[in-house]
Amino acid sequence: MDLTHELAVFLRTRRERLTPRDLARPPHGRPRRTPGLRREEVAELAGVSVDYVVRLEQGRGLRPSAEVLDALARALRLNDDERVYLFDLARQRPVSRPPSATGRAPSPLARLVHDLSPLPCMLVDHRFDILAANREMTRLMLDFDRLPVEQHNTLRLCILRPEYRGFWRDREMVVRECIADLRAAWAARPDDAFLDELITELTSGSEEFARLWARNDVKVNGRGHKRLLHPTAGPLSVDYEVLNPLGDPDRRLVIYRASDPASQAVLDALTDGAATPVRDGVAGGTSRR
Q1: Which domains does the chain have, with CATH numbers?
Q2: Is the pLDDT of residue 95 over 80?
Q3: Tens of pLDDT along 104-154?
Q4: 276-280: which pairs have CB atoms within 8 A and are 24 or more residues apart?
């Protein structure tokens, strides 16, 4: 496939599907001979020259930068999938999707969290806000659902809540891995003010977080092993898997499985083998309300 030609065709077709009315812009005085926005209008919206837009649409071998592609995507009102496609055609690494607003878990994903019982499962976002959790997970995680909703964040619980200090038997490793994952999310989403607020809060509120954040470790954790010490049920070990929904990559399904029969017995004792409706809700700090 000729990517330069495809890029030219894609930009032209995306321009032609828009009208000034779509962008709440007053129509230009002269009649329009073709549908859609004029190249001059796209150039103005994207902050580039008209000649640059013309050469792009003619496939004249330009290699637009990520910044220019981002501006064109906004000007042409591309959706998330179209934006990624545009970056792929230009052979540029896609800039992260715009950060998702904090809110309730999408209903199908919340139901899936419940349907995965009796496996402990929760739905989190890239900030580690807990958007939904089934009964098995809430009981295992020290009934965090009894806390105010704004505290339903795994890093906030781990770093700021004293009852969690002995919960992870390999605490240093767990905290380091979580912070390394958070740093990757932070670098990919430089415009996420909510994420900046979280990092500022944890840095100022915890010497431990500030020390480990300063290591500049980066690692996205897809699976792993954790050794836990539940204050009433005793020690157990779990293996975890992290899954990203294709249509909502800012969300993560975190699924725990007991690592051995003794750990499974602990999980069974915690939940009595019963499942109840999934708990979901708005996550994040009070500044997000």
Answers
A1: 3-89 (1.10.260.40), 107-288 (3.30.450.180)
A2: no
A3: 566 788 899 999 999 999 999 999 999 999 999 999 999 999 999 989 999
A4: 276/134, 276/135, 277/114, 278/110, 278/111, 278/113, 278/114, 278/132, 278/133, 278/134, 279/132, 279/133, 279/134, 279/135, 279/138, 279/145, 280/104, 280/105, 280/110, 280/113, 280/123, 280/131, 280/132, 280/133
